[in-house]
Design a protein that fits this description.
Helix 1 packs parallel to helix 4 and helix 2 packs parallel to helix 5. The chain has one domain. A six-stranded mixed β-sheet has the order 1-8-5-4-2-3, with helices on both faces. The chain has a two-stranded antiparallel ribbon with strand order 6-7. With 248 residues, it is of the alpha/beta class.
């Protein structure tokens, strides 16, 4: 091997060593900083209910789950938590002073940015498509050096071993309460529905009701290195339950 070849070979080895070291440092940093499970639950809009006498603490609860996780059950825990606060659960919506309706829209892996966008969009707002995020090692480390196939393999191994995973649950909430006797509330609704390609249809309606309605969105997230859904689901459920029952 001549001097030129030796220098080139030494350069490749050095580059490879630097790449492996940077990748390893990134993986170690993620593993340390994300070793503890972090669960957060945020509400897009605050709701204040009027205080009521004990005989009016009657709630009708309707929970729907239209996500692809049918085993994400929040109805049971929510009913138990609300009953523990002195409320009675009824199956008759007309007999209830309060009506709590919720729809779990999405339970999936997502980036923190997607979770924040879902919260900011509020009730009925869009959910960012393609928001899944599994990798966690900062891609800027990969650009620091080019080590050929071996360096790429080292980076791939680190990526597969250490992932910064966030699970997100998006739930839209509608909460209503009976207005005081003699108070009538006018409710105006407007909905734009698409009709084929390029066509829309607008539907409007107005009604007088005795119920005040409030809407909000709750976004719960669980974050940890190499987090699995089985570990995240119970904590997402408990966070959502605390947030909902805190309204009463």
């Amino acid at each position: 091997m001549n001097v030129k070849q030796s220098v080139k070979f030494l350069g490749i080895i050095t580059t490879l060593a630097v790449t492996i070291q940077l990748t390893g440092c990134a993986a170690t940093a993620v593993a340390i900083s994300k070793k503890d499970l972090d669960v957060q639950t945020k509400m897009s809009n605050t709701i204040f209910l009027d205080p009521v006498s004990p005989n009016k603490k009657v709630v009708f609860i309707q929970i729907r789950n239209t996500s692809d996780k049918p085993n994400f059950d929040i109805e049971g825990p929510i009913k138990q938590a609300i009953q523990a606060k002195g409320y009675r659960i009824t199956q008759d919506p007309e007999a209830a002073h309060f009506r709590l309706q919720a729809n779990v829209l999405n339970v999936t892996k997502a980036s923190p940015t997607a979770a924040e966008a879902a919260l900011n969009n509020g009730y009925g707002g869009a959910i960012v498509a393609g928001a899944v995020a599994g990798g966690a090692i900062d891609r800027s480390y990969r650009g620091a050096a080019v080590g050929g196939l071996l360096a790429g393999a080292a980076s791939l191994i680190a990526d597969n071993a250490v992932k910064d995973v966030t699970y997100m649950a998006i739930t839209d909430i509608q909460l209503s309460e009976k207005a005081k006797k003699g108070v009538l509330i006018r409710q105006d609704n407007k909905q734009d529905a698409s009709q084929g390609i390029g066509g829309t249809q607008r539907q409007t309606s107005s009604e007088v009701t005795d119920r005040k309605k409030y809407r909000t969105r709750i976004v719960s997230t669980a974050n940890k290195v190499n987090l699995e859904y089985a570990e995240a689901a119970p904590l997402l459920t408990s966070g959502l339950t605390r947030s909902l029952t805190g309204l009463f």
